[in-house]
Amino acid sequence: MTAAPEVPGQTDAVTARTRTPLLTLISAEALERDYQMVALRRVQQGGSPSRRGGWLSGGLGVITIVAVFGFLVTLAAVQTSRNADVTDASRATLIDRIDARRAAVRSQQRAISDLRDDNTKAEADLIELNGQVNDVEGDATDLGAVTGFTPVVGEGIRIQLDNAPYADPDTEHIRDSDLAMLVNALWTAGAEAIAINGQRISSRTAIRNSGTAIEVNSIGIAPPYVVQAIGNVNTLSSRVVESGSGASFGVLAGDYGWSYDVDNVAELRLPAAPARLRQLRSAEQASQGGRAPEGDG
């Protein structure tokens, strides 16, 4: 089979095409194809294609496309730059917020540590204060027992007194002064707490007659009179008899025929004196360093 003769111009065209860069070749062929389409359209419309005009038109189109593309690229670059600025600003703001929050957390942690130290100190102070309160309450209990304003329990003696069956109520009945004498004898003998017919004897107790009746703590009592005294059962009753007041009371009991029975009791329960007796009407606590008011004369 005989090969077709080579045309010198065609060979040079092929060689030039193979040596043309791909991007340049694509652009040239695209422009050539656009030119052919424009020329064909003009022929169909009855005109004649002008190579100069076609190339001019195609060149303007390419320039327009390149300009638009460049504008878009520029716009994208500007937008990207703006976005980058916004991103950088947002990142800086976020970092500032993180640093601020970390500083706030550190401050709160220091505050928590200080509060824990204060709480520990407050607990120690509370324990110390509770100890002081317990001591004060113990002192108050002891003072209340001594003064008669706290209920007490303990061993002691019970003395039951009564008038003679046919005694003269005006001269031979037991009077307030007789009971006061017996109470003084019990205090002297070592009694720690005393009650008469359930009325506790306190530092403010008054034993007095109201007509023929006797009142203790402003409450009337009637015979038989039961005197309870807490103290050492081994010595209390004997010391009452040995005291001057006790001896005088024994003489009166014998003269007027009063019954007088004494019993040792393993456990006595005495109530507290009425709370109203603890209210001071006129006396007030003096201020520190103050001077007592001087008398009129």
Describe this protein with a few key phrases.
297 residues; alpha+beta; Alpha-Beta Plaits; 5-stranded antiparallel beta sheet; disordered C terminus
Please specify the SSE layout and strand pairing.
Layout: H1 8-19, H2 22-44, H3 51-147, E1 152-162, H4 176-189, E2 193-196, E3 199-200, E4 207-210, E5 213-216, E6 219-221, E7 225-230, H5 236-242, H6 244-256, E8 259-270
Antiparallel strand pairs: 1-7, 1-8, 2-3, 2-7, 4-5, 5-6
Helix pairs in contact: 2-3, 4-5, 4-6, 5-6
Structure explained in plain terms:
The chain is an alpha+beta fold. It contains 6 helices and 8 strands, in the order H-H-H-E-H-E-E-E-E-E-E-H-H-E. The strands form 2 sheets. The chain has a 5-stranded antiparallel β-sheet with strand order 3-2-7-1-8, with helices on one face. A 3-stranded antiparallel β-sheet has the order 4-5-6, covered by helices on one side. Helix 5 (236-242) crosses helix 6 (244-256). InterPro entries: DUF881. Keywords: Coiled coil, Membrane, Transmembrane, Transmembrane helix. Pfam families: DUF881.
**Mean pLDDT figure:** 79
Assign an overall shape: rod-shaped
**CATH homology superfamily of the largest domain:** Protein of unknown function DUF881
Helix amount: 55-70%
Q: Strand order, main sheet: write it out.
A: 3-2-7-1-8
Q: Count the DSSP helices.
A: 6
Computed Rg: 62 Å
| SS strand fraction | 15-25%
Uncertain parts: 292-297
Number of domains: 2
Spatial gap, N to C terminus: 169 Å
Looking at the chains present, what oligomeric state does this protein adopt? single chain
Largest sheet: 5 strands, antiparallel
The strand count comes to: 8
Name of the CATH first level of the largest domain: Alpha Beta
**Assigned CATH architecture of the largest domain:** 2-Layer Sandwich
Secondary-structure element series: HHHEHEEEEEEHHE
Stated plainly, the CATH topology of the largest domain is called Alpha-Beta Plaits
Task: Provide the structure class.
Answer: alpha+beta
